[in-house]
Amino acid sequence: MQKKITIIGAGSVGATTAFALLTRGAASEVVLIDVNKEKALGEALDIKQATPFIDNCDIYAGSYEDAVDSDVVIITSGIGRRPGQTRLELVQTNIAIIKEISGDIVKAAPNAIYIIVANPVDILTYAFLKYTGLPKNQVFGTGTVLDTIRLRTRLAEIYSVNKQQVHANVLGEHGDTSFVAWSTATIAGVPLSEYNGAIASAYNVPNEYTREDVETYVRKSGGRIISRKGCTVYGIGMTSTHIVKSLAGSAETAMTVSSLHDGEYGIKDVCLSSLTLIDHTGVRSIITQKLTDDEIAKLHASAEALKEVIKNVNF
């Protein structure tokens, strides 16, 4: 399928995402837009010279006008998180950037699906919806999809199983109030709480762990990577690419993107992550899966934390 993707922001995340999109066959055309035009030109040329080994694709640096007829727009622009800084501390600066971007890009590509990647992603997704007035199905953030693959990576290590057989999700804010929905976690369809007892061979007994340790691993992974190398790129680049490929699929895909809630779980007027169906039209529906009372309380706490930030932000 021919798919034109525009990426706004040619920094480390934007460039890595562009490369991932092309190498995984998720796009046939990629436009890189950045306020630093020389940086966008350099990244586009570097990636373009790898494309002889990739079928039927092109990448180039451009302007908002070049985004016309884009199927998907991915927004990575924003000030990166510094070591020790929380995502929410980024909010005011990056909201100003989103406001500056929103008018020009929507004028060029009013029918595109918009994926917000820049942090704090839940707040910026909400802001982009407010600034543009686009239908809520057209705009969502990467949310806790990255947190979820970090969780599945860790559980696969603990249980010594294929990562693709681990089905467990992180819900809520992409940040400090996120939580694991342990009640819905499974390995190969077996509830996680029953998995140990279902193993017949002693050699495959999982490593000991606590749920608190796993949740800390998930929440702190981004900060630990940033403290060591300055940024996180590969996980989010592949996350964005997986989402784009899912949008092009022939069936709906469930994942924990950040979308505007309108009464689901009793939560309204805030963007955060719960299990959500997406397809070529964007967000189809939020799945109100059966969660425990404690998990629902944590989802509400996450929503309230985000609303508190929204209340104190200058839009």
In short:
41% of the residues lie in helices and 18% in strands. The chain has helices at residues 12-23, 37-48, 91-108, 121-132, 145-159, 192-198, 211-229, 234-247, 293-311, and strands spanning 4-8, 29-33, 58-61, 72-75, 113-116, 139-141, 166-167, 170-171, 179-180, 186-187, 190-191, 253-255, 258-262, 268-273, 276-279, 282-286. Helix 2 (37-48) links the parallel strand 2 (29-33) and strand 3 (58-61).
Structural features, described:
This protein has 315 residues and is of the alpha/beta class. The protein has 9 helices and 16 strands. The chain has a 6-stranded parallel sheet with strand order 3-2-1-4-5-6. A 3-stranded antiparallel sheet has the order 7-10-11. β4, α3 and β5 form a beta-alpha-beta unit. α1 crosses α8. The radius of gyration is 19 Å and the shape is globular.
User: What does the overall shape look like?
Assistant: globular
Broad structural category: alpha/beta
Q: Kindly state the mean pLDDT as a whole number?
A: 93
Poorly predicted segments: none
Largest sheet: 6 strands, parallel
Question: Using DSSP, what is the number of strands?
Answer: 16
- How is the largest sheet built, in terms of strand order? 3-2-1-4-5-6
Q: Give helix and strand order, one letter per element, not per position.
A: EHEHEEHEHEHEEEEEHHHEEEEEH
- Span of the ends, CA to CA: 38 Å
Radius of gyration over all CA atoms, rounded: 19 Å
Our count of helices gives 9
